[in-house]
Specification:
globular; alpha/beta; about 325 residues; 5-stranded parallel beta sheet
């Protein structure tokens, strides 16, 4: 059978490629200091272990990093930058549950006698049962000082507590003022009424050694909903990819694979207004392009047709002081 390429099909495919190429330019994420060309001194490395992403983030903004830390290295993008100076001992689920000897061994090996711990009601939405303050039980009997940063009184209190523990109280006001100023500014860009725009968030992973890609879709009720989509008046329609058993893995649904590629049919039915790419956008872009070749109807998905496909930074409530900058990027893309 001879295939006829109509002007409409050609135009639809051209629009998809345009959307993909436009998304590439949105991928760069730099702190405000880098944008302004400012240079900051490297953080001071202290003889301590910090358990908890949020405390590490605050410490970093105060100019300090611990010798070692227990944070979500695979979930928190900023950890890739910080691990150059501070060793990641494993995620809290690993150090608190699976390999409880990890931190005691690190303390002994490094001669460290100080542990700073994040204390919060829910440390991780994906693993709500983890209570990292229980490190006290694991370290019972060791000659170690355990100090806590309590987040129950809000971020400003947590910053001041951390600053006091690190002897950086003089810097606390500056860090808090910067955060408040940035958050107040971005709040002026938030919609007064909910638009109800439908959003699907794809997280991509690309393996250079094999050239293969894997995709996940963020399930509703997670970090993106709570900190980004809800303030922006949008709705997560990721449930269109919910598997038969209804289970999400670490807040995401896997995109199923078949012989000729990944199954993106649910997106045609969901017809989202906006598509967000997090993680490795190339994995998402390549998958979309391949799927379009086999399924021309994919070009009629509203987000693709309207070129509303954006590569944006992921937020998992770890980079607490960078949150205003991340929210601003999402607002720039999603609010129109």
């Amino acid at each position: 059978m001879k295939t006829t390429i109509t002007k409409q099909n050609y135009f639809s495919k051209s629009m998809v490629w345009a959307a993909v190429m436009l998304a590439i330019f949105a991928m760069t994420f730099q702190p405000e200091e880098a944008k302004a060309g400012m240079k900051s001194p490297p953080p001071e490395i202290i003889k301590a272990i910090i358990i908890g992403d949020r405390v590490v983030d605050i410490a970093y903004n105060l100019g300090v990093l611990p010798e070692a830390m227990s944070v979500y290295g695979c979930q928190w993008p900023m950890a890739k930058q910080l691990k150059i100076a501070s060793q990641i001992l494993g995620c809290p689920n690993c150090t608190m549950v699976k390999k409880k000897d990890t931190i005691p061994n690190a303390l002994t090996k490094r001669g460290i006698k100080r542990v700073i711990v994040e204390k919060t009601d829910v440390f991780c939405l994906y693993r709500p049962k983890i209570k990292i303050e229980n490190i006290a039980v694991i370290l019972a009997g060791m000659d170690v000082k355990i100090e806590y940063v309590d987040f129950s009184q809000g971020l400003e209190s947590a910053v001041r507590q951390t600053a006091k523990l690190l002897d950086r109280e003089a810097k606390a006001d500056k860090v808090i003022e910067k955060y408040k100023k940035q958050l107040a500014k971005v709040k002026t860009k938030l919609p007064k009424e909910k638009s109800g725009k439908k959003v699907i968030i794809f997280n991509g992973t690309y393996q250079p050694s094999t050239g293969k890609s894997t995709l996940r879709v963020e399930a509703p009720g997670g970090y993106a909903d709570r900190f980004l989509l809800d303030p922006l008046g949008c709705v997560n329609v990721g449930d269109s990819f919910k598997p038969a058993d209804g289970k999400a893995n670490k807040g995401h649904y896997p995109v199923r694979k078949k012989k000729n590629g990944m199954v993106l049919d649910p997106m045609i039915k969901a017809n989202p207004d906006i598509i967000v790419m997090t993680g490795d956008a190339l994995a998402v872009q390549r998958t979309f392009a391949d799927y379009l070749t086999a399924n021309p109807a994919f070009a009629q998905v509203k987000a693709i047709r309207d070129m509303a496909v954006y590569a944006l930074p992921v937020y998992v409530d770890s980079s607490v002081l960078e949150y205003p900058d991340i929210l601003k990027k999402w607002a720039t893309a999603l609010v129109r």
